[in-house]
Write a structure and sequence with these properties.
Helices cover 40% and strands 20% of the residues. The chain has 18 helices and 18 strands. It has 581 residues and is an alpha/beta fold. The protein is globular and about 80 Å long. The chain has three domains: 116 residues, OB fold (Dihydrolipoamide Acetyltransferase, E2P) (Beta Barrel), CATH 2.40.50; 267 residues, Alpha-Beta Complex (inorganic pyrophosphatase (n-terminal core)); 120 residues, Diaminopimelate Epimerase, Chain A, domain 1 (Roll). The strands form four sheets. A five-stranded parallel sheet has the order 3-2-4-5-6, sandwiched between helices. A five-stranded mixed sheet has the order 7-8-9-11-10. Helix 1 crosses helix 2, helix 9 crosses helix 12 and helix 13 packs antiparallel against helix 14.
Length: 581
């Protein structure tokens, strides 16, 4: 296989009659209706639910398998004043889920401890040593995992021996039987019919809190009716959900939309401080701000040091301490970026020197020099550049720990299942996964994994597709259309920001700004005297030629907000000198 340089442009063609009917019923721009139909939203009620995303419309929490048992056991622990250990993961999803559950339990009188393992020294998930060193040592009566635990069979068995109950809440794909825990609350269980398998770990934790509040309400826990408003936790749910790149549809969309409003208000000192150091303080926050600014800084704690720092940021009430931690996370994020750049350069150079490594349908590489904390980020970048599943394994002290990322249509977790007997541990889902392996097994695993990928895929899976929602001449961009497109936020996985195409674009003005970005004024070649459109194209070659036209252009359309003033702007994603598909 060769590296794919150019994507295939695909303009979606929804049924014109369905589009026209939806546009008429919503009284919206035909392009907005086309975008909705492309996302399989074809009726006025569905469109209203999508755009309004009401919290009241979420599915029932007790539909999730084992939710009733989990709630009853937690309530019993609260009543008996048992010590509860909330055990989380070290990424944004895990940190926010830990914060959310611990804060709610404390608010209803729970005696709560929190623990997040060190990525390098302890690895992922609840393990046997945590039962003795953390739970038994602290006199814990109940362990509740968040964003982990689905594969912690040995730890659950050890806890049972020690007389400690375990409740697992997780969202990762499960292979085989669930752990022998008191309850395993995971919508991805094969025997769970709730239809909530797209929830992030923090979403599952939030559902647990919703169910627990109802249970407490039903037994009269708040006789004066002063129960907590759970919307206050949606800032945490939005952070974890967007950062974990789960589909922003259904409940995830509802939670994220409500959460983005609360994040923008910056009521939580830690979020306020993080927004300040990330340079987005004082304005409305979008999903992309979480993905590219807030999330990476929270993740930097677990990648480069200890995720306990991020947990403290989310839980502190002291603005000064919050700012101190946020600045440290900002520093760690800069360090992470430098390590990531060095590792990516090394891998790309290695692939250039050994081109035969690109002959397969996957890339599996290992090294004793790689920093475990950035394996997943770099794997994602290599996967995008070479458009195939990538697994990077860092070897230390005789143990290989790897992280992988995939491409649409190729199930990474299924590939690992096919090679399970070569692995010590593994977990994850279709697009992202982690593993532990003995170094001597890596060569055989590499061949077997590539064979598994080859078996589940076709050549077409390895040609990237640029999916265009609609052709949109620049002259058709209006304030009304931009407002309607803004109402479809938040954009993200499962609800991508609409991508449009224009043909025959003239560049009236062009200059490089900010070292690697091209600012332009554009117009249609067919209407050179028409109203110009302001445009920006990010990460271009500053030494490359400044074009005077594009045969076709893929772009996103929206508002550029600066100093309280908003102006129409298109973001140019891909250009081609040819105007045919």
């Amino acid at each position: 296989m060769k590296r794919v340089e150019e994507p295939r442009w695909q303009v979606l063609t929804p049924d014109p009659a369905v589009v026209a009917r939806l546009a008429k019923s919503l009284k919206c721009h035909p392009v907005t209706a086309k975008v909705l139909v492309n996302r399989r939203i074809v009726s006025r009620p569905d469109a209203r639910r999508f755009m309004e995303a009401p919290l009241a419309g979420i599915r029932a929490p007790f539909s999730i398998r084992d939710m009733d048992a989990a709630v009853e056991r937690i309530d019993a622990a609260i009543q008996k004043k048992e010590k509860i250990l909330v055990f989380g993961d070290y990424d944004v999803d895990g940190v926010t889920a830990t914060t959310l559950l611990a804060e709610f339990l404390e608010s209803v009188g729970g005696d709560v401890r929190c623990y997040i393992p060190h990525r390098t020294r302890e690895g992922y998930g609840l393990q046997v040593e945590h039962i003795e060193n953390q739970a038994v040592a602290q006199g814990i009566g109940l362990i509740v995992t968040v964003d982990c635990g689905a594969g912690s069979h040995d730890a659950a068995a050890e806890a049972r021996k020690a007389g400690i109950d375990v409740i697992v809440t997780d969202h990762h794909t499960m292979s085989g039987d669930p752990p022998d825990a008191l309850a395993v609350v995971n919508p991805r269980r094969s025997d769970c019919c709730a239809g909530l398998g797209d929830l992030a770990g923090v979403g599952v934790a939030f559902y647990l809190v919703i169910a627990l509040r109802k249970h407490l309400r039903d037994r009269g826990f708040w006789p004066d009716g002063a129960e907590p408003n759970l919307k206050a936790f949606c800032d945490l749910v939005a952070l974890g959900t967007v950062a974990d790149v789960v589909p922003l549809t259904a409940e995830n969309r509802v939670f994220s939309r409500a959460g983005l409003e609360r994040i923008s208000r910056a009521d939580r000192p830690g979020i306020w401080a993080l927004m300040e150091v990330a340079g987005i303080g004082g304005r409305s926050v979008a999903a992309e701000d979480i993905a590219f600014r807030l999330g990476p800084r929270i993740n930097a704690a677990g990648r480069m040091d200890n995720a306990g720092l991020a947990l403290e940021l989310m839980t502190t009430d002291d603005p000064d301490r919050a700012m101190e931690i946020a600045r440290e996370l900002n520093r760690l994020n800069g360090e992470r970026q430098a390590v990531e750049r060095r590792m990516l350069d090394e891998i790309l150079n290695h692939l250039r020197l050994h081109p035969h490594l690109l002959d397969g349908r996957s890339i599996v590489l290992s090294s004793e020099k790689w920093h475990e904390g950035v394996l997943g980020i770099v794997a994602a970048k290599v996967a995008r550049l070479h458009y195939r599943p990538v697994l990077l394994i860092g070897v230390r002290d005789g143990v290989g720990k790897g992280s992988g990322r995939s491409i649409p249509g190729v199930d990474l977790h299924a590939g690992l299942v096919a090679c399970a007997d070569d692995l010590e541990r593994f977990g994850g889902h279709a697009m992202a996964a982690g593993l532990t392996i003995r170094p001597e097994k890596i060569p055989r695993f590499r061949d077997r994994f590539d064979a598994a990928v080859r078996k589940m895929s076709t050549d077409d899976d390895f040609t990237p597709v640029l999916t265009i929602d609609a052709e949109l001449p620049l002259s058709d961009i209006s304030d009304i259309l931009l407002d309607e497109l803004a109402s479809l936020n938040p954009y993200g996985e499962g609800n991508p920001e609409p991508l449009f195409m224009a043909r025959g674009v003239r560049v009236r003005f062009s200059k490089i700004v900010g070292e690697r970005h091209r600012k332009m004024t554009l117009c249609a070649e067919s209407d050179p005297s028409g109203k110009p459109v302001q445009a920006i194209q990010f990460n271009v070659d500053p030494d490359g030629p400044l074009p005077d036209r594009f045969g076709k252009m893929a772009f996103r359309a929206g508002w550029n907000v600066y100093n309280g003033r908003k102006t129409p702007q298109v973001t140019v994603e891909v250009v081609s000198p040819e105007n045919d598909l």
